[in-house]
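Throughout our pipeline, every protein is held as a single compact record rather than as scattered files. Such a record has a labelled line for the sequence and another for the backbone structure tokens. The remainder of this section carries one protein's record, kept here as part of the documentation:
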Amino acid sequence: MEIYVVKKNDNVDSIADRHGIMVEDLIYDNQLEYPYRLAVGQALLILTQGDRASASLSREASSREEAEQGSQQTLSGQRINPGKMPLYSFGYAYPFINSRTLQDTLPYLTDLYVFSYGFTEKGNLVQPRSDDAWMIEAARTAGVRPVLTLTPLGSDGRFNNNLVSLLVNQPGIQQHLIWELGRTMLEKGFLGLDIDFEYVRSEDRVGFAEFVARSRAVLSVFGYSVTVALAPKTSANQKGLLYEGIDYHLLGQAADRVMLMTYEWGYSQGPPMAVAPLHMVRRVVEYALSEIPAEKISLGMPNYGYDWPLPYERGVTRAQTIHNQEAVQIAIDHGVEIQFDRQAMSPYFFYWQYGIRHEVWFEDARSILAKFQLIQEYGLTGAGYWQLMNFFRPNWLMMENMFSIERK
């Protein structure tokens, strides 16, 4: 595997010829759009025929194994490719995800997190507004575990963190909600629960961990795993509403696995910067490892970028969310060079449109590779994506060549 950065006067033919690969493979692997224009500074994934053959054989072997053992046995069995680090690979998706996007993504996943279910003040479960039965079935058919994601989404369709406080302080409501979760998971065919509560109050820190532990104790009897998403802390006593109610040590003990939400440093209403700068991601990982065993930790990864109009004004400026391929296309359309920040390990660029200057940060093969290498360096157990609504093939091809999928 190699990552090639486009230079002035490069084209797909010259790059393919230089690396001894087929033009069609270069175009396919990098999702290049006709007429296959490139941006200077664009990162391209180069796979040799050896890389491609190895991945193809691995995928064929997996398909044969699933066909021989059957869908249910694949879900409960384990497959690890020799010589590769085993990995849980999962991501969040709304039920309105494009069916083709989901089908393209499922072969690279161990778990599909359906986003999201909520609950009422009485502990009744709130279903997603769109039908999720089709994606649960698609996941199970592909040998991927469908996971119910629980958030503090009220019956009015809005996130309400007062619900978290109510829940963790009322054992009766907890008992009812856990019963509702178990019943729904059984009826719909879910195989796990993910708890994604943000802005937990500091006074609810212990109660939240106890709710996670209680959920795991009940659901594990039926073979369901319980995971929890953690805000990106760098120290135990970190101040701020996002952090104070999230106790890494207690939640690491309470859950089967955790995912570090190591993204949104650059966010829609904040100043322009990398969404997941590597030096900050590393700090979160290092703190997490001081509280939680590595085999329980998955690294959260962004599958998107932001486009900010400039100048940035706090409380006024709002960035537009864009997907990674869209970002590259913007650079191509405006004839600008893509830069790369070596500290954040993230691509960015500037462009002008209608007299307004814009700043764009996104993910590419280089930034993703850096995060995969961080997973390897610290021996983490998985990679989790927010979110899977857009398919970015270079990510999955690199994952396929660097890791094996661990399905249990």
Notes: The CA atoms of residues 9 and 40 lie 9 Å apart. The mean pLDDT is 92.
